[in-house]
Amino acid sequence: MTVEPLNSTGTGRGAVEVRRSTRRRRTVSAYRDGDRTVVLIPDRMTAAEEERWIGVMLDRLAAQENRRMLDGSELARRATELSEQYLQGRARPSSVRWVTNQHTRWGSCTPAEGSIRLSHRLQGMPSFVVDYVLLHELAHLLVPGHGPDFWRLLDTYPRTERARGFLEGVAAAGRLPHTPSAQGE
């Protein structure tokens, strides 16, 4: 197997890495790995076929992610549901929206305005992770810092630790260089 990192495709989803395999005969597959897309192709493909398949697979992944993503009104509705379920409806944001300018935070809020912003990097992640970040920001509308009162609010969400672990793993993977496995694809 050879690993050929490519430049960013201009999709706004980060770099594309192509992995060729002599064991792979006909199938092409792709998955997201942090901000990178990994495309697995047969070793015998030409450069033109590779480029075509990269485009096809990026389109397929984007379509899958769009089906899983909440739009702005759904995001606000979900915030209301989470507030009712876990915060007795006390957190009432004035706005909830996706933003593309948060690269070091998963979410943020301005309690004085009641606004919540979630990083676009969360789009396509499991719903329990998005719910956790949304609930985290809702809790900040009630308690500004990360003291014991804040964490008591989040203790009611049963997937807090799992979501935090998921996000820590994504962040750690983004800092590590990728090394191909010894067993191929």
From TrEMBL:
The protein's name is M48 family metallopeptidase
Which region ranges are annotated with the description Disordered?
A: 1-22
Q: Which Pfam families match?
A: YgjP-like
Query: Residue ranges under compositional bias (Polar residues)?
Result: 1-10
- Tell me where on the tree of life, at the top rank, the source sits: Bacteria
Q: List the PANTHER family hit by this protein, alphabetically.
A: UNCHARACTERIZED PROTEIN YGJP, UTP PYROPHOSPHATASE
Q: Where is the YgjP-like metallopeptidase domain?
A: 92-163
